[in-house]
Amino acid sequence: xxxxxxxxxxxxxxxxxxxxxxxxxxxxxxxxxxxxxxxxxxxxxxxxxxxxxxxxxxxxxxxxxxxxxxxxxxxxxxxxxxxxxxxxxxxxxxxxxxxxxxxxxxxxxxxxxxxxxxxxxxxxxxxxxxxxxxxxxxxxxxxxxxxxxxxxxxxxxxxxxxxxxxxxxxxxxxxxxxxxxxxxxxxxxxxxxxxxxxxxxxxxxxxxxxxxxxxxxxxxxxxxxxxxxxxxxxxxxxxxxxxxxxxxxxxxxxxxxxxxxxxxxxxxxxxxxxxxxxxxxxxxxxxxxxxxxxxxxxxxxxxxxxxxxxxxxxxxxxxxxxxxxxxxxxxxx
Length: 333
What we know:
Elements: H1 9-20, H2 23-30, H3 34-45, H4 48-64, H5 75-93, H6 126-129, H7 136-142, H8 147-158, H9 163-170, H10 174-191, H11 209-223, H12 227-231, E1 234-243, H13 253-262, E2 273-280, E3 283-290, E4 299-309, E5 312-320
Parallel strand pairs: 1-5
Antiparallel strand pairs: 2-3, 3-4, 4-5
Helix pairs in contact: 1-2, 3-4, 3-5, 4-5, 8-9, 8-10, 9-10
C-alpha cells in the first residue's frame, strides 16, 4: 500500500517509536487521529459507543502491528486501513448488525446513536466531517449496505480514496472495488431523497438561522407545555422515530401527534420540561429534561435531532437517554 509520497515526519517518528517500543511516543503520534477514526468507525457501525470501542481496538492493533509499518503509506492511511478492518471484524461477529432491509423502517435500527458534534475533529479534512455524510439519514442509509460494500463506499465516496488504495486496504481487486461501489451508490440513491444525493459535493457545516430558530422554538414549546406551538413547527409530512423503541416510525405530523398525546405528552407527569439546544451529527438538536412529580430536579430524558426544511421540522428522531449520561450533557438541571 503506497501513497507515492516521501517519508514524512510523522511516519519517521512513528517508525522510530515502533522500533524502540516506546508506548508513550506511540500514543503521542497516533492520538491526533483518534477523532477522525472515531467518525470513520461511526459511519461503519452507526453506534457512537461501538465507534469509541473500535477506535481503541484500532490503536491496540496498530501497536501490535507496529513493526509492519514501513512508511510506504501515510500513517493516517495505515490507521484507516486498520480501523476499517476492525469494524469489518466486529460486524462479522455481530449477528444483530446484518444489513438493514430497505423495507424495514428506521425504528428497526435500534442500535443507532447520535454522534456528538463536540467529538468531531477540531481541524477536520472536509471529507471526514462533511455534514452531508454524517447526518442521521445518511448514516442509516449506509447501514443498508453489506459490510464490505459499506467499507468500499465509505473509503471511496466519503474519504475520496482512489480505487487501488481502497482495494489494497480491503485486500480486494480493483475490479471488485469498482463493482461494489456501483452497487453501493445505487442503494444509497434509492434510500436518500434527491436533495441529499450530493454527498460528494462541497459540504456545509454551520446551522442556518432557520435551524437555530426552530430548535429554540421547539424547546420553548416544551417548556410552556404548548402542544399547539409544537404542532405549528411540524411539516405535514413529518417523519418521526423514537429510538430504540421498535415500531415508532410515523410519516405524518398527525400520526406523530396522536402518538404523543396517547403517550401522555404534556399531561400530568410529562408536563414539566426544560431544554438545552445542542447539535448532533451536524444537525440541530434539543436535550430535553423532565421533572417527575414530587422530585426537585429535571432529569435528562431524551435527545431530539431535527432536520429542518423551509423553517419547519421535516424529520424528528428522538433518542431515549433516560438514566444515561450522554454527550457530556448534565444529567440533571
